[in-house]
Model the fold of this input.
Amino acid sequence: MKDVKGVFRNLEKMLQQASWFDDEWEIYNRGNYLQVYKRNWFNQNQGGIHFETFIEAPQIKQKSFPICMHVEEDCPSQPEFIREFMALEGDRIKGWKGYKTLGSNYDICRRTMPLNFKNLEQKIYEEFNRLRVLEASVEKVLLKL
Done:
């Protein structure tokens, strides 16, 4: 089994070098669990708005792992935020191959990816780049609330 921590270390470096990644963005990397978010997304304790992936024992066993967007309880007016955000972005997300919009609780959308270690960093990087386009709508809804 390839080193997941190494995959996430490489992914973190790739994200930090992305053209869109600036001082406003943060990465929380716990080795086999990674979140990407902006500083003003109430995610200082990993319970706000973030894009997330993880590859832990259950995912290794299932040979698949999720890439998702969460809006958790640290987000002010969480139910309102989710409602407004889904009104803006639900259709776009539904159009993305493999993504399911959940919009319930805190799980906004999710894509389950096969755990195939060939080009894994690149595949996850591409998905975070895709999710990153939701940034403008996150900012727009946060300003309204």
About this structure: The two ends are 45 Å apart (CA to CA). The chain has a mean pLDDT of 94.
